[in-house]
């Protein structure tokens, strides 16, 4: 008999009490986080975030936060159990997490869920430094944008990128060589919508007349 009791005890599974299971079942499901207009946005722009219900229990509101888990913001749920907010994303680029929980009318809170969106830089001007003799990209050329006073060094593909306020600017480029190269542009009108411009760099003894 003792052996039978021992076998029963070691082979049994502990079950949650009916009361405990009922409490767990009443907690609302974690919200679904999505982005109606897409999950990428340019720096300085705005982004729509939508929260939805994932379980059968109705919720009255959602708590959320961007970039941390403080859940310091709150939005009421509509009759269909969803809510949409629009946020200013600021100028910090890269991936940004969104954390959220659902809350029902009794104040019961769901487990936390997470979504993410990406903020990308808006380049006012992009281009490539090109050797005017070989038509190859020039790596390591220094590109200067005036009157902003911004300097950029080109990468392996000769590409340069810069973000500045709209206005009239002039590009100059220099390369120490060998051979040493330089070049400049006519004034460029930057309107904030993005412009691509290839800057030709000439040997110092072959500079074009302007």
TrEMBL record:
Keywords of the record, alphabetical order, are: Carboxypeptidase, Hydrolase, Protease, Signal
Is Secreted set as a keyword in this record? no
This protein is called what?
Carboxypeptidase-like regulatory domain-containing protein
Q: Which Gene3D superfamilies match?
A: Carboxypeptidase-like, regulatory domain
Q: Give start-end of the signal peptide.
A: 1-21
- Provide a Gene Ontology MF annotation, just one: carboxypeptidase activity
Query: Which InterPro entries does the entry link to?
Result: CarboxyPept-like_regulatory
